[in-house]
Amino acid sequence: MHKSHDSDHREPEEIDASAGYERTDVRVSGIVVFLTALGVFVVVTALLCYGIGKLLNGRMAKADGPNNKWTKTVDVRPLGNMPTNPELESKMGELTQRFPAPRLQSDDGLQDLADLHVRENLLLDHYSWANREQGKVRIPIGRAMELVAERGLPVAPAVEEARLLTGDSKQVVAVPLTNGFVRTGYEQEQAQAVETKRLEKHK
Fold this sequence. Notes:
Layout: H1 2-8, H2 28-64, H3 86-97, H4 111-125, E1 128-131, E2 136-138, H5 141-151, H6 185-202
Antiparallel strand pairs: 1-2
């Protein structure tokens, strides 16, 4: 019993540190095993990526079909650099300076949009010919509203509606809250300036 107890609790081996450095060599076998496993992993990963790439390219080529004059690869290197064309460069410069219509318009400070609204107001507030040959005339919108209020709108004939199926509901169209016409900030500033001048004159 005493011997077995002594064998289980052995004293740690004493290390001689008098030399000041490690006297035993490094175990090269562990490093070799790690580098070998790393190399095998890299090679297997490269082969796997190559195989997946070939598989995907093959499927895409099969889906695209055979090459034609629109899909075949052309080597443009023999063509060299294209010669410069001053006339073409000048034309391109003009196009980049002024993009062809229709162009995007900003909200403020755009005079042509203000002119458009002025022309629309002229059509809304004055008499003008719609078709002189047929004798059709545009009337001011104020007068048109008076006539509608006096005479009413023409009544369209009733439309027979089909019976609703089970689960269906009758659709209701909401009346819009605005006619969609909004003046730009530039026009509002101009109108405010005109109103300010008018008030100053009356003072």
